[in-house]
Amino acid sequence: MKIYIDGKFYDKQEARISVFDHGLLYGDGIFEGIRIYNGKIFKLKEHIERLFQSAKAILLKIPHSSKELGDLIAETVKLNKKHNGYIRVLVTRGKGDLGLDPFLCVKATVVIIVGDIQLYAPQYYTKGIAIITACSRRIAVDSFDARIKSLNYLNNVLAKIEAKQAGCLEAVMLNKQGYVTECTSDNIFIIKKQGFLLPAFFTVF
To answer: Whole-prediction pTM value?
Structure first.
């Protein structure tokens, strides 16, 4: 596995970022999860657009143009010889100090990882899974814009812990008003089948 970090490719065992990177210290950064199907990167343009929108929302300057980043992603996929797989693109605030001030971070860190991801064993995609409703509530949109794909996923991690402790693989998360929002790592869609409304899940990672 070859991982791109700030202009260079590293073997998995050699891939490093600074312990002073604000993505690590404060979850100060953004990401996109992109799929590869049959040698094609799925909706690359749209994912890059959303990444730049997230960056704009948190005043984070990505040190590449959209085209440059797209080319880097494609190059990383080619280097890893992935026909089907998963891409994780991360942009952090970069190296700073132990203080919170983001303006002390001189340059953003860009990481591109190409590998595989499967959240559930194959049989669960046909047989379904048991789920719970988590006590952990989704962060209110007036506190943090949910459209920003932030590196800080602790809210979802806590709900996932609840699910695992209950013997389930997934949990539904509600907002503060008690309405369904999403699962810890899946979107929820309601489909109509034979007069019944049934939940269906789509992995967002």
So the answer is: 0.88
